[in-house]
From TrEMBL:
Record-given protein name: Potassium/sodium hyperpolarization-activated cyclic nucleotide-gated channel 3-like
Superkingdom of the source species: Eukaryota
GO molecular function: voltage-gated potassium channel activity
PANTHER family in alphabetical order: CYCLIC NUCLEOTIDE-GATED CATION CHANNEL SUBUNIT A-LIKE PROTEIN (PTHR45689:SF14), I[[H]] CHANNEL, ISOFORM E (PTHR45689)
Species this chain originates from: Temnothorax curvispinosus
SUPFAM superfamilies according to UniProt: cAMP-binding domain-like, Voltage-gated potassium channels
InterPro entries, sorted: cNMP-bd_dom_sf, K/Na_HCN_channel
Coiled-coil positions: none
GO cellular component: HCN channel complex
A single GO BP: sodium ion transmembrane transport
Record field: transmembrane: 94-120, 132-152, 173-190, 240-266, 297-322
Length: 417
């Protein structure tokens, strides 16, 4: 058992410590309140903290690469005329995006289900929509918050908090989709949908289909899920798996709704009864059906093509995940193959062959990586910490105990070279 010198352990701890030049404050860059401040003043300050950029937001580190940049952005935001605008990387926005992710997924499931299986399939009353009305209210609040939330430039180098620019961008984007898909249209005609025939009022269903336009927000849902996974520390491969599971379940649900509703739509259009059949999403033939109309055939073909296309998408995505995880090992095997070819061409002796192969195994540990590119990307402080960790025995030498950090860093760098 090796007994470590306490001075050596203290020296190592000092070498690993990072001395931050930023002043120790609350981190909000807001003026301090007096101890006897009123409740309203404290509530106002806490609310303003929520709208400022936060280092806890999953995407903050991708735009602001240091604590200094985050502190500067907080100072710029808090002292500007738009200090009450919501920063896109604030915790308030992150919490709200999480809520909206749940709301969107809830709408993606309930709205097609109610429309297909109740309003059209069973001509049920509008009371079925009561479970969706609260989500419409939340969507209206989301529209308001989108008008007061900043956005990042396409190149990712600037945050815009100007109200005019935000409104212009939102109106050109998702505003009208969010608006027309967040209105409870059945409030204006609380009537039953009559069966197919001359007195049918099925044209009213057109307005009830408008909330399905929320599906256009699918990229927003994926981005929000990615943020949630990043905040939970979930790796990229597992994030893609979670997203594929969610997307697959939604597609199965939507395809069942379309398969069920299609004959009823034909009934309303043609005004006559029609045998209801079940179409397959991923079936490869239709031998089990005796006869079917042209419209039914077209629907089956569309669902078949979409299902096959989605299966191809799943297979390609899974292969990409497997390839990315095995990429370092494949590169290492390629390098080892080149080393063995080099040994064979130069006819090296057996002892030298073993030394070369052992060196490459020790050097890369069965995974190839470009150390120079990695070290060039790291900061000087991180490079020094890495070198100190790789040369821990260097600190055990008594003559080096009192050397400053920069001298030890130069020694380890020269030793590596």
């Amino acid at each position: 058992m090796t007994i470590r010198n306490p001075n050596v352990l203290i020296k190592r701890g000092n070498l690993r410590a990072h001395v931050c030049d930023l002043p120790r404050t609350s981190g909000s860059n807001l003026p301090k309140l007096p101890p006897n401040a009123r409740f309203y003043s404290r509530w106002k300050r806490n609310l303003q903290k929520l709208v400022l950029v936060s280092i806890r937001h999953p995407l903050t580190s991708s735009v602001f690469r240091s604590q200094t940049a985050v502190a500067f952005e907080k100072k710029r935001h808090s002292k500007s005329s738009h200090r009450w605008m919501i920063h896109p990387f604030s915790m308030l926005r992150f919490y709200w995006d999480t809520i909206m992710t749940i709301i969107f997924l809830y709408i993606f499931v309930t709205v097609p289900h109610i429309m297909c299986f109740y309003r059209i399939g069973k001509s049920s009353s509008p009371e079925r929509w009561n479970i969706v009305y609260p989500t419409y209210a939340i969507c209206i609040i989301d529209i308001f918050l989108n008008f007061i939330t900043g956005f990042i430039s396409p190149d990712g180098h600037e945050i815009f908090l100007d109200t005019t620019l935000i409104a212009r961008r939102y109106v050109k984007g998702y505003f009208f989709v969010d608006l027309i898909s967040s209105v409870p249209y059945t409030w204006f005609y609380p009537t039953l949908i009559l069966p197919p025939g001359p007195d049918s009022n099925s044209a009213l269903l057109i307005l009830e289909f408008l909330p399905i336009l929320k599906l256009i927000r699918m990229p927003t849902v994926r981005r929000n899920i990615q943020q949630i996974n990043a905040s939970c520390g979930i790796p990229q491969a597992q994030h893609i798996t979670i997203w594929l599971v969610i997307l697959t379940l939604l597609i199965f649900h939507w395809s069942s709704c379309v398969s069920y509703i299609f004959p009823y739509i034909v009934m309303h259009i043609q005004g006559k009864t029609m045998k209801v059949r079940v179409s397959n999403l991923i079936g490869s033939n239709f031998v089990e059906f005796d006869s079917f109309g042209n419209l039914d055939t077209i629907l089956r073909c569309i669902l078949l093509l979409l299902g096959k296309g989605y299966i191809i998408y799943l297979i390609v995505t899974i292969f990409q995940l497997l390839e990315s995880s095995a990429k370092p090992k494949l590169k290492y095997q390629r390098i080892m193959h080149e080393v063995k070819e080099y040994i064979h061409q130069n006819k090296l002796p057996l002892y030298l062959q073993d030394k070369l192969i052992f060196y490459y195994k020790y050097r890369y540990q069965d995974n190839f990586f470009k150390e120079n590119i990695i070290s060039d990307t790291l900061s000087d402080h991180l490079n020094q910490e890495t070198l100190f960790h790789s040369n821990q025995r260097l600190l055990d030498i008594m003559i080096l105990h009192n050397l400053p950090r920069n001298v030890l860093g130069d020694l380890t760098t020269l030793q590596k070279m």
